[in-house]
Specification:
The chain is globular, with a radius of gyration of 23 Å. It is of the alpha+beta class. The chain is 31% helix and 30% strand. Helix 2 packs parallel to helix 4, helix 6 (385-406) packs across helix 7 (408-421) and helix 7 (408-421) packs across helix 8. It has three domains: 7-201, tricorn interacting facor f3 domain (Immunoglobulin-like), CATH 2.60.40.1730; 206-312, Zincin-like (2-Layer Sandwich); 322-465, Neutral Protease, domain 2.
Length: 471
Amino acid sequence: MPLAPGYDIQRESLEVRYAGGAPPRLTIRATYQLRNVGNSELTSIETTLPKEDVFGRQNLRVLIDNRAVAVQPVAKEKEDEDADRPKQLWSIPFDPPWPRKQKRSLLIEYDLAPAPPGVAAIAVNDGSFHLRPFGWFPVLQTPEKLFAHDVVRPNPTPVSIVVPQGYFAIATGDLVRVRPQGVEVEYQFLLRKFDLDPFVVAGRYSEQEVRAKDGTIIFWTFAPLPPDAAKQAGARLASAWKAYEATFGPAGNKMQPVSPHIVETLAQIPAHFAQEGGPAGRAFLGGALLNRPAFILGVTSEEFLSLAERELAQSWIGEQVILQPHAELVMGLGFAEYAPIVAAEARGGAAARRAAIQTRLRAYDDARANTVEKPIATITRQDSWELRQLAYSKGALFFAALEDRCGEAPARQAIAHLVRVLRGETGGFSELRSAFEEQTGQNLADFFRTWLNQTGIPVDFRARYEEGNGN
């Protein structure tokens, strides 16, 4: 017997349709077949919806059994205020109340046309768009009652991306169908039980598939890349991706290889590793969005390749493991600076690892010379650009120091363990330390305090990697 109010999602489907225009927009359409499986009738349920002021949500329409209903926002104190996951709770009423054991159909539909500058979670441009897996789609909520029945996504759940002919699209899940529909084409993906929340990347792109010794890289760009340049860049990035998967585990939920996508975007992306307006990227699971200034550098330039390697690394920590706000810079972007050290070692051995660490040490010193240092555990994305650069560089050195303390193999196994255990969940420094202590049997409390809560670089680490010291 059920012990509390609750309902099941028996069927669910999600459709994203791109419409050109001035401005272009997306129509999001979510349909559900629901059943009341709780111990009482329901007068309402709650869902998250994207915020109007962030996503430009318009034309909201909600139907229950094909009858329009008026939804209401839930009190502000229940909102999710995380800037990277902007969403708001809304109440969907049932009048008359929804009896036990009965079914209801639900449709939620709205347009998204975010006004500039928007957020990195979504971009809708002329000829391309992306949706990161936060906030843009409805999520029906479990009732806030003791012993309430958990509301979960059905397995599988179809996600359809409807775009004009000539567009490419990629999304979370397995691609099961590409079907022309007149002047449009539908890409249908199936979300399985262990898939993460959906992202979508699509556009009128030129596709170049580079098959290299270490794997396949797919470029989506607005104009074709020179073939030799694409081949050279693809080989470097395939090597990095192979090193990441060998070290941190598979990027997807399957053991088969993932061919990462490097995608050009017109979106305004926060520049983490350069001053605003410069080359910038944003990760998605199994790929990276890089802006026009990045491509202007040339895909064979070290600046472009380094940026792409950093963004691809976030397919592990940042995309699979969602970070608590206080750990975002060190465990997210610091890890993204550290992972290319692993890739460099895979290409060039211990000497390449050492040189890459020395580069991060110089970057830390440069940032420190231009700001008043704070412990990296206290630096947030609201701090100055110089402090953020310091946090990224010292974060990378922190991971390298963990390798030195614990041994390369145990340290990397600990990171892979963290990704496996926290896939789709939120974590921070406590979970990272637990993963390392479990894998190594060491007490790392003092180590974490020294690196995260004190300023400067420990003397022994700096001495080990000083230029000219080959030990």
